[in-house]
Amino acid sequence: MRHLLSTQDLSRDDAILILDTAGQMAATQEREVRKLPTLRGKTVVNLFFEDSTRTRISFEAAAKRLSADVINFSAKGSSVSKGESLKDTALTLQAMGADAVVVRHWASGAAYQLAHGGWLHGSVLNAGDGTHQHPTQALLDAFTMRRHLVGSPEGAGLDGLTVAIVGDVLHSRVARSNVQLLHTLGAKVVLVAPPTLVPVGIARWPCDVVHTLDEAIEGYDIDALMMLRVQRERMTGGGSAFFPSPEEYTRLFGLDGDRLGRLPEHAIVMHPGPMNRGLEISAEAADSPRSVIVEQVGNGVAVRMAALYLLLAGEEGAQ
C-alpha cells in the first residue's frame, strides 16, 4: 500500500492491519515518553485547502510522535490563493523532499489526482476531498467501535454489529467512507436521512436507508449511533433548500435524551465533529456517559500514526 485515498481501496486484511497497528500505537501513547523514532528523517507535509482543526492537528501530532519532520502548508495566504495550480504546488513539495503529503481539498478526487498525476514520489494520505472520502476518519470510527463493542482482539472485524449513520449523508465524505469500511469489516449499516439529503444511486450502496431516527431505533438493534454534522456551508440557502427548518430537522433526526434512552444499553454515541449542539445532537446526548465523541479525537492520533507508519516505514519498519 503506497497511498491511503479511499476506504474502497482497503481489503478486510488491510483495514484490520491498520486497526491492529493503531492499537499498538495507542499503547505507546500511555507511556511517559510517547515519542517513537520510527520516522526519523522523513518529512510529512500537511497540505490543507480547507479549514480543519481536529484533522490537521491530529495528523501533525501523529507525525511528530513518530519523529517525522512536519511542514504545515495552508492554502490561505499562500501561492495557491494567488492562483497556483495543484500540479505546481505538488512539484514544489516534491522539490522540498516530501515523503508523505496529507491533503485536504474542497474538490472530490483531488487526493487521487495528487497521488497519480506523476508529480510526487511520496505517499499521499487523503484527509478529506470534497464530499467524496475521508478514510482515516472512518478508520478511527471503526477503531473506536472495535474497542467498545468487540473488545479489540487483534484480527477482529466488526462482524454482527449494526451501525446507524444519521443526518446529512448527501454532503458527507464521512458517511461514504464509513459505509464502505464498515461493510468490509462485516457490520450492517443503516443510513438515516431525509430524502433530500440522500445521494443519487444510494440503492447501490451496501446499506439500508430509513427516513426518520425513530424508525431506525424501533426497527434495528443499534450498537453504534453516529450523528453527522449538518453541513450548512455546502448547502445553498444555508440549508433551507434541504429541509423546512432547523426545528423540523431536530424533531425528526436529532438525538435527544428520550431517543438516547430508547437505544440498547450497550449502544455508543459517535460524532465526527464539529458538533452543532441543539441541531443534530442535544447537549444531554453529547455529554452522556455513552458518548465516545471526545475519545474519537484521541483515537484519531493513534490511527493516523498507524497509517503513516505503514506507508512510510516500509518493509524495514514492518520487520
Summarize the structure.
This protein has helices spanning 12-28, 54-65, 86-95, 110-116, 135-150, 173-184, 213-219, 246-253, 257-261, 283-286, 293-312, 314-318; strands at residues 43-48, 69-74, 100-105, 123-129, 162-166, 188-192, 208-210, 224-227, 268-270. With 319 residues, it is of the alpha/beta class. It has 2 domains: 7-133 and 297-318, Aspartate/ornithine carbamoyltransferase (Rossmann fold, 3-Layer(aba) Sandwich); 135-296, Rossmann fold (3-Layer(aba) Sandwich).
Element order, helices and strands?
Answer: HEHEHEHEHEHEEHEHHEHHH
CATH superfamily of the largest domain: Aspartate/ornithine carbamoyltransferase
Overall geometry comes to globular
* Low-pLDDT residue intervals, each spanning 5 or more residues: 315-319
Look up the CATH topology of the largest domain.
Rossmann fold
Number of helices: 12
Structural class: alpha/beta
Strand order of the largest sheet: 7-6-5-8-9
Question: Class of the largest domain in CATH?
Answer: Alpha Beta
Overall radius of gyration? 19 Å
Largest sheet: 5 strands, parallel
Secondary structure tally: strands: 9
How many separate domains?
2
Strand content: 5-15%
Distance between the termini: 16 Å
Q: In the CATH classification, which architecture of the largest domain applies?
A: 3-Layer(aba) Sandwich
Q: Give helix % range.
A: 25-40%
